[in-house]
Amino acid sequence: VKMVSRSMKTTPAVTCMKTLLAIFTLIFLVIGIALLVAGTYSKISLTSYNLLSTTDFTSVPYVMIGVGAFIVVVGLAGCCATMKGNTCLLRTYAVCLGVVFLAEVVGALAVIISRNKINNGFEAGMQNAMKKYKTDGAYKTAVDNAQKTLHCCGSNNYTDYYTLPGWNPNTVPMSCCSNLTYCKEHLVDNKGCPQLVFGVVNKNLGIVIGSMFGVAFFQLVGLILSCCLASSINANKYELV
């Protein structure tokens, strides 16, 4: 039995796995960047609705941004590990993929569990925002934005404003009106805002959950490829001649 050089001959199987892992890593990097963009978009689109809920859900976009940033860093490390064919780096890469996988699954489950809590928080949140409409500019902007964008008025309907303390009888905010000249006869809609606001937030949460589970499944492919490539390289370090 004779031991050959540690700079062993690369077998077709190892070359094939290196190519697959390189392709995976590039896709992985693109996914990381996409999560960063999606998280930033969700942060911008959901911020205005946070004041309309008693449940703070602003951390959800940060989860996507954090995972996306970590994926980019891990992806760059994966590129280096794949190119060098270093078994130690490849195993470290596999461990990092495993950590990201667990983080994504836990994060997605946490968002799923918090959905009902977020939904229930909008009714009380909208009522609170309406009470502060005339005294707090931030709440006024949030309510007006929701009512204009979603074509709704009040918590249950436009008559909610009639009973608010300090509010002029039989009047509603201009954001409830489709025709500013004839506001009373041209209300945007008689629908309350909470369920419509939750619909928008829920859609964004659905994107977060779907993205995390999708990427998590993809992680398993990379983890398996990394481990298989590391094992194949080790097996080929010493050959019988």
UniProtKB/TrEMBL annotation:
InterPro entries for the chain: Tetraspanin/Peripherin (IPR018499), Tetraspanin_animals (IPR000301), Tetraspanin_CS (IPR018503), Tetraspanin_EC2_sf (IPR008952)
GO cellular component, one term: plasma membrane
Database matches in Gene3D superfamilies: Tetraspanin
Xref: Pfam families: Tetraspanin
Keywords: Disulfide bond, Membrane, Transmembrane, Transmembrane helix
Localization terms from the record: Membrane
Membrane spanning stretches: 20-41, 61-81, 93-113, 205-230
Annotated membrane topology: Multi-pass membrane protein
Any coiled-coil regions, as ranges: none
Tree of life domain: Eukaryota
Family that this chain belongs to: Belongs to the tetraspanin (TM4SF) family.
Protein's recorded name: Tetraspanin
Organism: Ciona intestinalis
